[in-house]
Predict the structure.
Amino acid sequence: MTKTQQVRLAKRPSGLSDADTWEVSTQELPAIADGQILVRVDFISVDPAMRGWLNDVRSYLPPVGIGEIMRALDIATVVESAHPDFAVGDAVSGMFGVSEYAISDGHGVTKVDLGVATGPTWLGALGMAGMTAYFGLLDVGRLQAGETVVVSAAAGAVGSVAGQIAKAKGATVIGIAGGAEKCRMLTEELGFDAAIDYRGEHVLSRLREVAPGGVDVYFDNVGGEILDAALANLRRGARVVLCGAIASYNDDKLPTGPSRYMSLLVFRASMTGFVVMDYADRYPEAIAQISQWLADGSIISREHVVEGGVARFGETLNMLFAGANTGKLVLAV
Ligand code: NAP
């Protein structure tokens, strides 16, 4: 019998989740049956989308139910196997949830090579964040060399990879992030051409200064006023990639729509939303390309690993909304 500590949804939050949102408990798992594996979770991906999964609304995935283990993507190690495709010791990626151990039938579980990259990187540049940056920028944004790209939440998991992919593809790249230190990292460590500190600077006027010819691709992770500032600075034929809108994830009321949406007409621009999971068949293509960029130094993967195990999940999730992470936020179990 394996004992596992796990985090369940106790109560749907209003605004930021808090201690009442979660129930941390310990459970004994049964023995595995034929066709199953037992995994030990090593790293949990902590994602802005998790806040949306707590709301009882229709979305691209059903909400997490009250009393259910919180949904999460993990990097784990197979510790027992009665499944023909998995052996004890295999490193795997799968939706095992916020739990120390889990039993799986192998559905949606993929092996990862820890010789190529660490567990946190398999959740970051080589994981969902990297896949989102790659397909969002290249497929949805149809980025061309020589274009000007603006990325919001640029020092985060998706944004930091999106900006570096745009550089690798020959674009001029401007990042928007909170704070002087994040902006310094973008230009001095990750090779962005310019960075705007939205907490200390007027984004709309700074965008006019650093992108006087206008923006060809705006990769939006944030929504709200920053989206409006980008819409005001588009170039004709621009593509706005709706990746996320973290500025409103904790709002109880729906935000008012982008006030500058007529810019889409003026600049003959488009705005397209996407869900990365729709690209699952093409993940191998993105993993191969991003691995090559990591190996040749074109992309640096930044991860922010919080120690302390599943009991720290709630406070770690809230770090995303305070901008307390730089790069991919991961909880080590
Ligand atoms: P992340 O960027 O690593 O973390 C979130 C960052 O958002 C924070 O570090 C913070 O950075 C910024 N932020 C938080 N509140 C903000 C606010 N009110 N205004 C402006 N910035 C704010 O998270 P991620 O995992 O890479 O996700 C980034 C976005 O991609 C999210 O919107 C997420 O929902 C979306 N996403 C979409 C898909 C898809 O399939 N479409 C898949 C994965 C992720 P600062 O310090 O700069 O404020």
Notes: Residues 47-49, 128-129, 132, 153, 155-159, 177-179, 182, 221-222, 243-247, 274-276, 320-321, 323, 325, 329 surround NAP (CB under 6 Å).
